[in-house]
Amino acid sequence: MTRLVIVRHGNTFEAGEPPRRIGARTDLPLTATGMLQAQALARHFSANRVSFDRVLSGALQRTRRTAEAIAPGQPIETAEFLTEIDHGSDEGQPESAVIARLGNDAITLWETQLIAPEGWEVGAQWRLVAWREFVDRAAEALPHGTILLVTSNGAARFALAAMGLKPGENRAGVKFRTGSYGVVEVGSGTDFRLLGWDIRPGETPGDTDLF
Question: Rounded to whole angstroms, how far apart are CA atoms 87 and 68?
Fold first, then answer.
């Protein structure tokens, strides 16, 4: 089976800095902590003898820098379906302001059903199609390969939906924290297996069993 290792980029806010809704319109670099997270992922995969046959990333520097740290020297393919979503007028706003504008129900629908709040451009339909087409091609071209995909929280959640995998299965929640990863095994047709989700190196007992 083909193994997909899906990573969320490292931190773009330092401790104590109020987080904001950041998406496609804001090309933030990794912070020092974010680079440490990327390097921790690199050490974790190396220690588990994980090598990557392909490396894909979103276009923004926070995803590319994370990919470069994990797989130094390997060519990085830019994939549109891994690029951040567009938060519209909520871009750059603190979470309290976003909730005040949209309400908690709108955020819950996005988190649980991929229904975008008013004014957001998430590309749900084309992302679902793109993810499914990618995994189908990957299973055919690299039936025993391992592929690294570095993306964002908003874009990553379409991976599970495209393959019919549900949050809650094998430690998979909706949230995908910075510096964490998930592993999906892909076979032919609809043969998908979620091995783990939202895992940070050294944090979860048994995470080495994924490899």
Answer: 26
Instruction: Give the phi and the psi of residue 7 in degrees, each rounded to 5.
Output: -120, 140
pLDDT digits (tens, 9 = 90+) for 116-150: 999 999 999 999 999 999 999 999 999 999 999 99
Which of 84, 67, 83 lies closest to 75, judged by CA? 67
CATH fold for the domain made of 2-86+122-210: Rossmann fold (3.40.50)
Instruction: State which amino acid sits at residue 12.
Output: T
d(CA 75, CA 156): 21
- Those residues whose C-beta lies under 8 Å from the C-beta of residue 158, and which sit 6 or more positions away, are 81, 114, 124, 127, 128, 131
| pLDDT-based confidence at residue 17 (cuts at 50, 70, 90) | confident
Sign of the C-alpha dihedral, residues 92, 98, 102, 108? positive
- 143 Cβ contact partners less than 8 Å away, ≥ 6 residues apart: 1, 2
